[in-house]
């Protein structure tokens, strides 16, 4: 009996993995055959593939559109699945994927710039442009991480900031040139539509070579599982192994992006499916993840063609629509999800930094005064006159108040979440609350033609708290496991992003309003909102210090936390509510912001605030500074027009953060 148990578990895992591949593949095959028979009878398939002379229109569609699309969906899935598992393994983080290390964002920014300013280059060089953009941003990420020996946290943080900066730059260019960029929205959501076999002939050798190199590199990759110190004692250089492995994964994902656009959820979800279904070793995950990704992307594309015959429905949005619920199902069914992402980023004991906190508080007061009194008006740059103070106070004070309060809330919530999960790339948005608010707004966008302030707030509130309940239910099956919380929340966020891209690509005249809200804006701030936000921020700053013992112990792991008498489940539930409620309110007021809650805690730690209490207040100050500065820049740079603060937090704050990171020890 003792011997039979692991064999039975291994056999059960094998059949789960087989079903996870076979069911989508068989369904996709049936849909493929049915779709092909709508074009040609079975007896004419072979001749249509090999005889191109004097071909009829249906035969040409079969040969140059239908079959290439099937092949590309399978090849792209294989490449995304393998690149996803490599990146997650090398960075030791379940949320890592090609988007995380800047590849997709760089490719998107390059294509946006080319579309707007050099459209001729796209005729024959779209793939080259995408590859060049992705390679440059990924090289920047590697350059920043090189000083830290390519540690997982350094690569992930650098990649996220580069991605946010490039994504904001792309969104800003699209907002300024809205009429020229609808095609880019579709491309950024992934498109598998083909016109000939040129993409297949380019992608097949690329994926093949990268896959062969990855499997040849298996032994050094395995050694990293024991940790960098153990791997170094065996005579290998962990930094070099990580750099080579990431280069292979980046090349593979860049080739896929150049071929079909951004289909990012597959690279995130397929490795998670493989782990949850029972792929225990690295070799098993490297075999099963590509197969799972290929079968799912093939099935998704066939479902698109079956249900949306007359509409170019983006494949990336469809994978999120179908993949997110499936991932929820597997998370509910799984008993354990072991995905170690701890890096020693958090410290329980460190010197006090009270003088530095006072300096931050003074800097915030000074910045607030400058933001109110100094700006750009009809007569150019200058300070406001005494006679104008009363009039401008009605316009500026609510915006400043909302920005200060929301920034502080995002900063504190980011610190709480990163310490609760011991994951330095976790942000308030990752638990799905902001994504749920976006889903609520998108649902309102679909079901009604008029959107007012009250209906927007109600829809966002319902979406945010319904999502929180769902994420807590999923994670509650494993004592509110941080890994399950992050995977479930990321699924919601990815789903919301995909639906937002689909809505923005629809051509609806209301998309300008939707884009402004999704970009993060204080345009519509009122005195009532500013007062409510300030009250919640003060309450959060009053309650958060009561959790400092929990925040010091939780990063040490669940076993140590329990041995020290901590009720882990209850503590996690309290912290999750403490994170979710302010995040939901801040999202309601200014829209989902992806930068502040992620980076404010990093600024705090990089400037020496490593004890929980100091980090909480420093993150609040940094978050408030980032957001009021971005809001001020947004209303002055291109006066009298305005730029959403959410775009500028990443566009301006991202490079600044990277400079500070590159110079810090």
What is this structure's SSE topology?
Elements: H1 4-39, H2 45-50, H3 57-91, H4 103-117, H5 122-146, H6 152-176, H7 182-188, H8 198-216, H9 218-223, H10 228-233, H11 238-260, H12 265-277, H13 282-307, H14 315-333, H15 354-373, E1 374-377, E2 380-383, H16 389-421, H17 433-447, H18 453-476, H19 482-504, H20 511-518, H21 527-543, H22 548-553, H23 558-563, H24 568-590, H25 596-606, H26 612-636, H27 645-663
Antiparallel strand pairs: 1-2
Helix pairs in contact: 1-13, 3-8, 3-11, 3-12, 3-13, 4-5, 4-6, 5-6, 5-11, 6-27, 8-11, 12-13, 12-14, 13-14, 14-19, 15-16, 15-26, 16-21, 16-24, 16-25, 16-26, 17-18, 17-19, 18-19, 18-24, 21-24, 25-26, 25-27, 26-27
Keywords: Cell membrane, Membrane, Plasmid, Transmembrane, Transmembrane helix, Transport
Family: Belongs to the binding-protein-dependent transport system permease family. FecCD subfamily.
Subcellular location: Cell membrane
Descriptive overview:
The chain folds into 2 domains: 4-333, ABC transporter involved in vitamin B12 uptake, BtuC (Orthogonal Bundle), CATH 1.10.3470.10; 354-428 and 516-663, Orthogonal Bundle (ABC transporter involved in vitamin B12 uptake, BtuC). It has helices spanning 4-39, 45-50, 57-91, 103-117, 122-146, 152-176, 182-188, 198-216, 218-223, 228-233, 238-260, 265-277, 282-307, 315-333, 354-373, 389-421, 433-447, 453-476, 482-504, 511-518, 527-543, 548-553, 558-563, 568-590, 596-606, 612-636, 645-663, and strands at residues 374-377, 380-383. The chain has 665 residues and is an all-alpha fold. It is built from 27 helices and 2 strands. Helix 1 packs parallel to helix 13. The termini are far apart. A two-stranded antiparallel sheet has the order 1-2. Belongs to the binding-protein-dependent transport system permease family. FecCD subfamily. Pfam families: FecCD (PF01032).
């Amino acid at each position: 009996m003792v011997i039979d148990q692991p064999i039975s578990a291994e056999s059960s895992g094998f059949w789960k993995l087989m079903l996870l591949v076979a069911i989508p593949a068989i369904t996709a095959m049936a849909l493929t055959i049915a779709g092909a028979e709508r074009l040609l009878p079975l007896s004419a398939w072979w001749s249509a593939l090999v005889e191109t002379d004097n071909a009829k229109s249906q035969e040409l569609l079969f040969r140059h559109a239908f079959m290439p699309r099937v092949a590309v969906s399978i090849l792209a899935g294989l490449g995304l699945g393998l690149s996803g598992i490599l990146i997650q393994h090398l960075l030791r983080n379940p949320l890592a994927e090609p988007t995380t290390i800047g590849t997709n964002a760089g490719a998107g920014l390059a294509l946006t710039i080319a579309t707007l300013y050099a459209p001729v280059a796209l005729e024959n060089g779209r793939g080259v442009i995408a590859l060049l953009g992705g390679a440059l941003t990924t090289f920047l990420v590697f350059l920043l991480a090189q000083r830290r020996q390519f540690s997982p946290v350094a690569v992930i943080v650098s990649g996220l900031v580069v991605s946010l900066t490039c994504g904001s730059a792309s969104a800003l260019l699209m907002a300024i040139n809205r009429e020229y960029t609808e095609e880019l929205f579709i491309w950024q959501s992934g498109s598998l539509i083909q016109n000939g076999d040129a993409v297949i002939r380019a992608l097949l050798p690329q994926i093949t070579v990268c896959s062969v190199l990855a499997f040849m590199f298996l032994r050094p990759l395995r050694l990293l599982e024991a940790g960098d110190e153990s791997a170094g004692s065996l005579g290998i250089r962990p930094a070099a192994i990580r750099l080579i492995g990431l280069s292979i994964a980046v090349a593979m994902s860049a080739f896929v992006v150049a071929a079909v656009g951004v289909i990012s959820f597959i690279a995130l979800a397929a490795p998670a499916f493989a782990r949850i279904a029972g792929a225990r070793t690295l070799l098993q995950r490297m075999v099963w993840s590509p197969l799972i990704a290929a079968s799912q992307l093939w099935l998704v594309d066939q479902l698109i063609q079956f249900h949306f015959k007359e509409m170019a429905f983006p494949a990336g949005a469809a994978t999120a629509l179908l993949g997110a619920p499936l991932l929820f199902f597997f998370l509910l069914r799984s008993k354990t999800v072991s995905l170690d992402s701890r890096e020693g980023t958090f410290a329980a004991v460190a010197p006090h930094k009270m003088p530095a906190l006072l300096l931050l508080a003074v800097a915030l007061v000074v910045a607030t005064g400058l933001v109110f009194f100094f700006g750009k008006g009809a007569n150019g740059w200058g300070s406001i006159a005494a006679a104008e103070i009363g009039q401008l106070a009605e316009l500026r004070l609510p915006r400043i108040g909302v920005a200060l309060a929301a920034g502080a809330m995002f900063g504190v919530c980011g610190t709480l979440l990163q310490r609760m999960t011991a994951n330095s790339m976790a942000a308030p948005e990752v638990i799905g609350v902001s994504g749920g608010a976006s889903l609520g707004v998108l649902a309102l966008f679909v079901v009604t033609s008029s959107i007012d302030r009250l209906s927007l707030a109600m829809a966002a509130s319902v979406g945010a708290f319904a999502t929180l309940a769902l994420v807590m239910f999923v994670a509650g099956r494993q004592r509110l496991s941080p890994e399950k919380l992050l995977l479930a929340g990321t699924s919601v966020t990815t789903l919301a992003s995909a639906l937002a891209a689909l809505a923005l690509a629809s051509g609806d005249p209301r998309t300008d309003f939707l884009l402004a809200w999704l970009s993060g804006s204080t345009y519509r701030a009122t005195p009532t909102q500013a007062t409510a936000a300030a009250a919640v921020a003060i309450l959060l700053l009053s309650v958060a210090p009561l959790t400092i013992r929990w925040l010091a112990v939780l990063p040490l792991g669940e076993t140590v936390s329990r041995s020290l008498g901590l009720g882990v489940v209850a503590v996690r539930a309290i912290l999750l509510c403490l994170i979710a409620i302010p995040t939901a309110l801040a999202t309601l007021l200014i829209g989902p912001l992806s930068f502040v809650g992620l980076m404010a805690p990093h600024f705090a730690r990089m400037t020496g605030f490593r004890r929980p209490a100091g980090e909480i207040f420093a993150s609040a100050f940094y978050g408030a500074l980032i957001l009021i500065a971005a809001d001020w820049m947004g209303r002055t740079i291109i006066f009298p027009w305005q730029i959403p603060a959410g775009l500028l937090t990443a566009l301006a704050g991202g490079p600044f953060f990277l400079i500070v990171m590159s110079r810090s020890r």
